[in-house]
Structures are given as C-alpha cells and as structure tokens.
TrEMBL record:
Quaternary structure annotation from Swiss-Prot or TrEMBL: The basal body constitutes a major portion of the flagellar organelle and consists of four rings (L,P,S, and M) mounted on a central rod. The rod consists of about 26 subunits of FlgG in the distal portion, and FlgB, FlgC and FlgF are thought to build up the proximal portion of the rod with about 6 subunits each.
Domain Flagellar basal-body/hook protein C-terminal, first and last residues per copy: 215-258
UniProt domain Flagellar basal body rod protein N-terminal: residue ranges: 4-34
Keywords: Bacterial flagellum, Cell projection, Cilium, Flagellum
InterPro entries reported for this sequence: Flag_bb_rod_N (IPR001444), Flagellar_basal_body_rod_CS (IPR019776), Flagellar_FlgE/F/G (IPR020013), Flg_bb/hook_C_dom (IPR010930), FlgE/F/G-like (IPR037925), FlgG_G_neg (IPR012834), LlgE_F_G-like_D1 (IPR053967)
Record's protein name: Flagellar basal-body rod protein FlgG
Protein source organism: Alsobacter soli
NCBIfam families: FlgEFG_subfam, flgG_G_neg
Annotated GO CC locations: bacterial-type flagellum basal body, distal rod
Domain Flagellar hook protein FlgE/F/G-like D1: 96-159
Family: Belongs to the flagella basal body rod proteins family.
Amino acid sequence: MRALYTAATGMAAQELNVQVISNNIANLRTTGFKRQRIQFQDLLYENLRRAGSSTSDQNTMVPSDVSIGSGVKTVSTARLMSQGTLTSTEGENDVAIRGEGFLQVTMPDGRTAYTRDGSLERDATGQLVTHDGYPISPQITVPQNATALTISADGRVQATVPGQTAPQLLGQIQLARFVNKTGLESIGDNLFVETAASGPATTGNPNSEGFGNLQQGYLEEANVNAVTEISSLIAAQRAYEMNAKVITATDQMLQSTTGMFRG
C-alpha cells in the first residue's frame, strides 16, 4: 500500500530533524555557533481527477481535484545567523562581533575562512591566531614585550610597549559580510567558507556602514535556545511516532485483506 512508503518518508524526515536538533543542543556552549533549522516540502502528487476538467458537454467542471501525495522531503537545513548573547571574559585577546560581519581566517591551504568565534590567542611569534593556529587576516603581530593589548570598536589594534608613551598601532582588523550569509558552508572548527549561494565577501572596517563593531573582552555565545530546541525535539518525536502508527495501521489493514483471501 502507498501509505507504507508515505509514512516511511515522514519517519526518515523526522529522524533527520532530530539529528539537526541534537547538533544544536550539543553546541549550546560553542562560541559563535549558529543554529540550524530543517525545512521540508511535500513530494509529488498523483492526480486521479484534475480540478477544472470537464464533466459534461454543458461546460460543467470539477471544482476540486482528487490527488494523493507521496510523502515529504528535506529541502534544507538552513543556518540561522541571528546575533548571540555577548558574554564578558575579561580576556584581552577575546573579541566579539556585535552586528554584521565575520572575522577572516587564513587556512593552511591559502583559502580564506570566516568565523564569529573571536577567542583569539598568540602563537610563538606573537601573531593573533585561532585555537587551531590559523592567523586572522589581515595578520597582526603583537610585540613580545607588549604589556597591554587594546582592540577598539572600529578594529584598531594597539599595544603598550615599555619605553613608549603612546600606544603602538599594530594593525587593523577587518570584517567580511555576504549578501546571503545563510549560504555559507560550515566546515567545522567554527569556520565557514563562501559558496556560489553566499556570494563573494565584502570586506570593511568594523563600525563602518553595513558592518558591526568589536567588543574586546567579550565572546559571542551560540544563538541556541535550550527551551526552543527541547520543544522542537518533543514535536519531532511525536511526529515520528504518528508516522510509525500509520505503518502499524497499514500493516493491520494488509493483514485483514490477506485474511479475507485465505477465508
């Protein structure tokens, strides 16, 4: 019976839904993480009687159709790029983006990746890098004898060096933004890369038109709401159970039909 296959598509869809929700919950405390939301579409229909078809020579027409759907399919696991809560860390290397934009990171293969995770560190040469040692772009190197590091809201990085009365300007952090930021591809490690869907990156200084500003000593939390995810998980579980109930009911109907033939 068709209902077996239709209900199976529903179970498969809700299984994937639970996987997406579980990933959101697992990354509840991941800095700069952006939650995903699964989206579905119905599958093709078999039209047994089309609306508008003629029923007589007097131009009478069928007011509504008779069609049977074949189930559901997953069309996207859209990533929601809404702002996460900023939390104070008091770390001078930590920086959060308040508003639009991504930090640029140079990958080992030369590609540029993008992140909202501003928990930066210094490598052996004083470069500002991610936890995996990838330098931010443009590269900024902090002198070994620097006693304080300051990152302004507009991205200027300055250091206090012994023997100098004025802070030394080390460089300028730039942000990147995209026409369709939900089209970015996540590659793990809190990093994204551009795709044809996201469009090319537009870079600029923080606090300039279209870009957010930087907050030193803060980090952006994941934009995951635990209550929302648990509610979605319960709804997905119930939908899965109802599809499983359809399969059970269809099986019982087939058993009844088989019994009639045996009789």
